[in-house]
Amino acid sequence: MKECYFCKGTTEIKNVDVDFRWEGNLYVIKDVPVEVCAQCGERYYSAEISKRIDELVQKGRPQETLKVPVLEFSQ
Ligand SMILES: [Zn+2]
Predict the structure, then answer these.
(1) What separation in Å is there between the alpha carbon of 1 and the centre of ligand 1?
(2) Residue of 73, 71, 7, 69 lying closest to 36 (CA atoms)
(3) From ligand 1's centre to the CA of 21, what distance in Å?
(4) What is the pLDDT of residue 1?
(5) Could you tell me if 57 and 20 are in contact, meaning their C-beta atoms sit under 8 angstroms apart?
(6) Can you give the pTM of this predicted structure?
(7) How far is the CA of 61 from the centre of ligand 1 (A)?
(8) What's the gap in Å between 4 CA and the centre of ligand 1?
(9) Residue 55 C-beta-side C-alpha neighbours within 13 Å
(10) Each residue of 20-52: pLDDT tens digit?
(11) Which of 3, 42, 49, 55 could form a disulfide with 37 if both were Cys (CB 3.0 to 4.6 A apart)?
(12) Which CATH architecture has domain 1-75?
């Protein structure tokens, strides 16, 4: 794909950090080569990338563990 589905902007492959939720946990996968719209920032994940993310979350060894602040919107 070279054109954004939403805004018709051009897309390019960029290394980005991906937030991924699985079984109640939040995972961050760093430097994932994802197709990103230069105009609106929409991300497009290929089947191959999605599969790799699934594998990493289930079998990969985390480099580090972060503490994530959780806030209530209505506080
Ligand atoms: Zn776009």
Answers:
(1) 12
(2) 7
(3) 24
(4) 62
(5) yes
(6) 0.82
(7) 33
(8) 5
(9) 6
(10) 999 888 999 999 999 999 999 999 999 999 999
(11) 42
(12) Roll (3.10)
